[in-house]
Prior knowledge:
The two termini are 30 Å apart. The chain has 14 helices and no strands. It is mainly alpha-helical.
Amino acid sequence: MSLNRHTKGDKTLLIINYVLLGLVVCIVLVPLLYVLLASFLQPSILLTKGISFNAADWTLDGYQKIFQDATIMRSFLNSMMYAVGFTLVTVVVSILAGYTLSVDGLVGRKSIMIFFLITMFFNGGLIPTYFVVKNLGLLDTMWAIILPSAISVWNIILARTFFKGLPNELKEAARIDGATDLMIFLKIIVPLSKPIIFVLALYAFIGQWNAYFEAMIYLEDQLKYPLQLVLREILIQNQVEPGMIGDRQEQAELQRIAEMIKYSSIVIASVPLLVMYPFFQKYFEKGVMVGSLK
């Protein structure tokens, strides 16, 4: 954008905005670049010299250990299963609830919305939720990760607002042609709802992919741990206190291995999100804007 078209005050404001945006980009980009570069460095070089651009100091041992480690690869697949399952349930529930609440003739619509809004600010708490999950027999299963937080009131509100923005003439014309409510929803509403569906899917996938707290509470079998929980344990192991391990050599080896795979694991954990976003990006802006107009 050329600055010649603007007044002196506008130019000053634009320059300030550019500087602030540049600082924000640096704040976000520098840690990402550090993690990426550190994942290729030998631990001894990283701990003593920091980031090095000398090719002799670079190694792929961290990534090799990750792909050779059955625990990490299994946890990666577990995270993918949890994230995909959570995304499917969340999107289906949000779309169905949002569309239903967008129908003008729905009896008790305002009361239902008030009830939903209350749950955004008040909940039963961790201990009652744990007992509910336990009494339903969901402990140590994938459903303990997927179901408790699959219903998001915010996502339902986003979907409801999007559906209210669709023209009623489409539904009325379909009814005149003899279409039922189910046919209208499946053949007209859903195809027009790709932007909000992709936005909700992206939100749900990212949220579940980065989650570890539910797994830490509800899962007992370590074979079912997601990647983020395994990564958390790696980071904790890299910060063992002196004296916790009697053999200093064993402690040094543990820290060296943990340091080697710590950054590589972070990079691997980010790959699905980096792969997803370019495919969702064309829908993302439209879905967010349209779903938040009212």
